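FORM 7B: Structural annotation worksheet

SECTION A. Query
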Amino acid sequence: MPQHHTIFFLGATGFLAGDVLHLLGRDYPNYHVKALVRNPTPERVAKLKQLHPNLTVVEGDLNDAQLIADQAATADIVINSASSDHWPSVKATLDGLEKNAASRSSDPPLYIHISGCGIISDNIRGEKVENPKFWSDIGLDLKDCDQSNTHLESDIPIVAAGTRKENPIRSIIIYPGQIYGVGRGVQKTTLWLRIFMDYAKRVGYVGTWGRGFNAQNTIHVEDMAAAVLFIFKAAVEGRAEEGANGLYFAVTDKILSYGEWTKLMGDHLYSKGVVKEPGCKPMSPEIVEPLGNYGWSLLGGNLFAKADRLARMGWKAVESSKVSLMDNLPEAIDAALEDDRPYVHIS
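SECTION B. Predicted structure
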């Protein structure tokens, strides 16, 4: 690869992306970042340029397949921190990267895709389970996951593109746990927080999928961004595992049940006058069923992962040991209330 890469970045205005761009701007200011932005207002563009000094905006959205394919066909690196379940944009990215690889067979492009631990959900619908499975990313085969789980529609073709014999790409998929914190970018709060707050405003209380006994590993957004940069740096230097072995869980060993943090959320929103009752309780089927298996898999299951690959490389979380999700939740809720944009699910 050349000394000064071009990065095509999808999802640049998102929650995690803000912290990733901040770190890229700090450590790789000479890399040219071309950011896909749906609504490039002067305010949003200025914020993105504050995060990375060598950033330009490509106006478009995830439905602009030809635009995405064209950009991926000419970039040295693609980082996708947008919706990991938006298959048309992932397909367009892979199509562009395949053309890219064909034109530079001795130096294939790098694709870093941010997915999520929803691939390992046991889909227990918020109930208790004895001896839940903990998944390691070493030896992980996506075909061993429940194929009804979220993210796999995109992730399996990415691995295939990274392992094929003709025009392969350098593929890496990163699987965050439950990310929390207040971000440094355009979007200050995480998606799951906005989903639950959106439902709370609709029904007047904070609810859980089922009884809320399901749990998952947590990670602070600053640690998550640091993990992405750690893997990015290793990949640029040719030290990262890729393709079939390029699957990385990015989690800490701190596990929290949904019932615990939703109770705190309910108490905090009640104190703010946002909901009609404190605490939390199960949401009715009429509320949760419209999201289908996406909701039950992602928000009603146990997602227990071990970041063995990152640990083997020497990465350690820092901020998560200082500030837990429960410590941070009131601040994050207040940031989301100040933003006050509704969550819109992309099907």
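SECTION C. Observations
The chain has a mean pLDDT of 95. The chain has two domains: 6-179+219-250, 182-218+255-303+316-339.

SECTION D. Sign-off
Analyst initials: ____
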